[in-house]
Amino acid sequence: MIPRYSRKEMTEIWTEEQKLKFWLEIELLAIDALAHLGKISEAEAQEARRLAGFTVDDVRAKEELTKHDVAAFVDVVGARMGALARYLHLGMTSSDLLDTTFSLQLVKASDIILKDIDRLLQTLKTRAMEHKYTQMIGRTHGIHAEPISFGLMLARFYEEFKRNRFRMEQAREEVRVGKLSGAVGDYFHLDPRIEEYVMSRLGLKPAYASSQVVSRDRYAYYFQTLALIASSIEHLTLQIRHFQRTEVLEAEEYFSPGQKGSSAMPHKRNPVLSENLCGLARLVRAYAQSALENVPLWHERDISHSSVERVIGPDATILVDFMLNRLAGIVEKLIVYPKRMLDNLWLTRGLVFSEGVMLKLMEKGLPRQQAYALVQNVAMKTYSEKETSFRDMLIQDEAIKKHLTEDEIKECFDLDRLNEKIDYVFSKIFED
To answer: What pTM was computed for the model?
Structure first.
């Protein structure tokens, strides 16, 4: 069973209090670095850490006056530190706090999202194994194509989300970068060793080169990765929505006791969870576009990116966290109808086996074009006949009988051959 989902772990990363805690820790680590470099005493650094503090209300009240969040924070913390406040924010600029904190938040959000993907992967694997040989029709252009299995379809999505997991690990590493390099990134009033010390303690890497800010291409990469994950979520839920259509009904979302599908029609059971996820994917993709537009900034920095990131940071990560957990729940509880799948597979009375017949004719020496034409001729007649199966039409066709025996034709309709090929695909995807 999928663990009960709680959004609290993700949302706490983005609270005002947690953000200010990150700011304070960065400031105090910078003071610790001064002591480590012998520029102040260890006792001063320890006393600074003991005295430093804030309340969210105090910072907000001060910001009403300063109209600047970091300046308000520095004022509030400095007021508690007395004479030691001279070491606070020494040589630093606001973005040293803001960007290093943003990277910390995104790294922590990544860890949660990676756990979410692991939950989904396990669920997809479990259901894929359960329905490994549950035969159904594969569709291209929305039209019946050739037989597959429901497990094979889920295995494809397992592989897709494995790729998403790899991308998320890469994106986490891409944003695992902070900076304490001052107002234009040249360490004019800062010892670069302070940055190295602070970042190592935070689990981040110092940016090789920064302006006043960490380059926004890093964050754009991150939000594009979230958009890819959201698009994969939509990819799967779009299939589920099709499966639940009344005319198809091969699978459907779990419908709980007491649930209502419509305020007007008591019979309705709609794929509302999947529809919800398809809609949310649009938002996440829009946030990726916003992150891309944050990349070009004026010179060493302007502030146009800041307001955007205050929205897309929490919104996109919280949304993807929610979406992955919702999808895991959908897949875990998905109601599957194997008999309906098999009925739909034979809905065209065997037409979906046409390629096998063509290939059998080619084995007999017919050119591909001729074999295709012979089979297509019988297939089109089968569409019109409405009663006789494609197999029987082939057996009765004089042109086909010249090349294939009845038994050879029947072999082309043997569904059991599918299992061996599914075993091969599964062996590649589920190596363990």
So the answer is: 0.94
